Write the structure tokens for this entry.
Amino acid sequence: MFRQMLRAKIHRATVTDACLEYEGSLTVDEDLLDAAGILPYEAVVISNLNNGERFTTYAMAGQRGSGEIVLNGPTARKGAVGDQIIIFCYEYYAEDEIKRHVPRIINVDERNRVVNKA
């Protein structure tokens, strides 16, 4: 049996832009994707701390070192610039893998710079 478990989380990232005229996704500074181990085009779940919205989309690599977190396409309606969000990435694990699994938790500051990794 496999169970879906949290693999990575970017905690309290700040939305820097919202672009309604884009096809859709979430643009994330490539440094943050690397830190969390999230790949471009990988599915992510977003939870908006400001308005309670929760939605699924895919991650896209943004400019490295920019701190950008951009809601694109329809997701631009799920939040506003300045909102804090949590980016979750899940994976399926076998029972024996779960025993040693530890999710990668990335905490960021108000400029979306990595503060610490757990």
